[in-house]
Amino acid sequence: MRGAEIADDIGDVVILGGAVWSLIAGVGLLRLPDVLSRMHAATKPQVLGLLMMLLGVALRLRTADDITTLILVGLFQTWTVPVAAHMIARAARRSSDRPGAG
Amino acid sequence: MKALRSVNARATSPLAVVWLLGVWLLLWGSISPLAIVSGLLIGFGLLWATPQPAVEIGLRFRPLAAISLLLFVTVDLVVSSCRVAWHILTPTLPESAIYNVPLRVRGGLMITMVAVAVTAVPGSTVIDARPEDGMLEIHVFDASSSEAEQNIRRDVQLLERRITAAFGSRAERRRVLEAEE
Question: Are residues B167 and B116 in the same domain?
Fold first, then answer.
């Protein structure tokens, strides 16, 4: 069972890493000054954090059912997050004339 | 207006049913006759109940180029996350700017792919896509260097080349390559 233990340990580390990225994204949403800048925090570290979280969970669960579901979550997240950010950014842009204004 | 027209334009596409069936099977995590039959029924049912606008597909799939695109975008995502994290965690904030970047691809699906990938590129998110004049409006997080506009143009062109190499139809590829000569 050494392989299983190693996978568990790597999974733990990856989950922790994903949590750190998500935390950074959260701090970014609070700290950055305007909507358009916040979209950077909401798209990049957030997606990376989530993908690492999914990878870590997959390493811990290691069953086909769960992994296929995790793949779906990852796929839809990476595909929809930029679109959602784009919609918000566009709305913010159209509601103000000043570039970069929140 | 648009919605009304698209309802009429669309017959249920077999590809869409196959895609929905694939999602259904991934959700179940197993391939059984029951899962396949129920997936097909639900796929047809959904497409019948919620007609989607017709998308001209026009895709090719080149596996090697697709893998290299995936790796490229993943590296971009990690690099850009690090940069954004740096700006979040240090007290100074960079100066942002908005640029209009011309696109060479024309298909709706191609523009979508480029726009999604641009969001992973370090320091840029898409604000608006204007297919009518082939422009992407891009917000660059750190535009303090004088080459910021050139850099984002170059990044978009590189992505266009990689994406058309992986998925583009022949016409799209030709358009991108010709524009570079």
Answer: yes
Check if the beta carbon of residue B125 is closer than 8 Å to that of residue A82: yes
Give me the amino acid identity at B118.
V
> Looking at the predicted structure, is the pLDDT value of residue A9 above 60?
yes
Q: At what angle do helices A2-31 and A35-61 cross, to 10 degrees?
A: 170
DSSP annotation of B94: P
Q: Do B125 and A69 touch (CB under 8 A)?
A: no
Contact across the interface for A43 and B123, Cβ inside 8 Å: no
Look at the block and give the residue holding tokens 């990044």: B155
At B3, the pLDDT band (50, 70, 90 cuts) reads very low
Helix (H) or strand (E) holding B169, with range, is: none
pLDDT of residue B106: 83
Cα nearest neighbour of A26 on chain B:
B88
Q: What is the domain count for chain B?
A: 2
Q: Is the pTM of this model over 0.90?
A: no
Its ipTM equals 0.81
Domain boundary, last residue among B32, B57, B82: B57
Yes or no: say if A44 and B81 are a contact pair by the CB < 8 Å rule: yes
| Chain A residues touching residue B141 (CB < 8 angstroms) | 37, 40
Mean pLDDT across chain B: 83
